[in-house]
Each structure stands twice: as structure tokens, then as C-alpha cells.
Input
Amino acid sequence: MKLTIVLIGLLAAVLGVGANADGLATDPLTKLPLPTAGAPLQLYEYPNTIGDVPVCSSKSTMNFYSGRSGTVSSAITWYTNHLSGFKHVHGVGSGRSQDTFYNATGTLIIGITGKPGKEGQDPDVYSVIYATNNRP
Output
């Protein structure tokens, strides 16, 4: 039994996906929750990490997840229910919906980009970015 627990812990460490106190999977960079099996939003498991991206006078590090399934509205609902205290803004850029959740200090960010569509439509999720913003 102890060996099984140790192996599960090692596997989680190797894959880079942990769990928070609620048992939800978390993004390894931000430690924010990731949608799990059965959630209305599904992401591909292995993000592309993008480091030292200049944002204004600071630098950000990001994990880029491609969307597997789910609509933008279902993603917004899921993140609204799982990100206590985060603010949400919506916009459209280059024909894609852009929704961003951010914490009070602006140091943790989740960005949801929809597939191309018109304002008022509910497109599928194209990608989700989890980011840290290291302010000077």
C-alpha cells in the first residue's frame, strides 16, 4: 500500500500536475485549478511553457493549453466557480472572444481564447493560458 502511494506521488511529480486541497488538478506554474474529467471544458494535458514574456514593465511566464472540447461560455462558468476572488473581463480581438480572469494583485492570470466567431456567438475554446506576472 505504501509503495502504491509513493508511486502515485512520483507519477504526479513527473507529469507536473498536482492537486490542491479540494483534490482538483492544478497548473504546475500558477497552482490554479485545471478542469478535470467530467468538466464542461477539457484541455490537452501538456502545456507549452512560454517564459519571460514582456508585459508592460514586467515579465510573465505562461503555460499555453490547447482546448480539447468545450464552449467559451462553459469555460467562463467553470472558472467563475473555481477562482474565488478573481475578476473577469471580456473582449473580442481578431474575430475571437477573449476572456481574462485575474487576481487582485494582477500576478495570476487565466486567459481564454475562443475559436473565430462573431460577437454574441458561443464558440468553442481554442486555448487557455495560465500566467504569472512578475511585477518589478
Observations:
- The domain at 39-134 is CATH 3.30.160 (Double Stranded RNA Binding Domain).
- The CA atoms of residues 83 and 121 lie 24 Å apart.
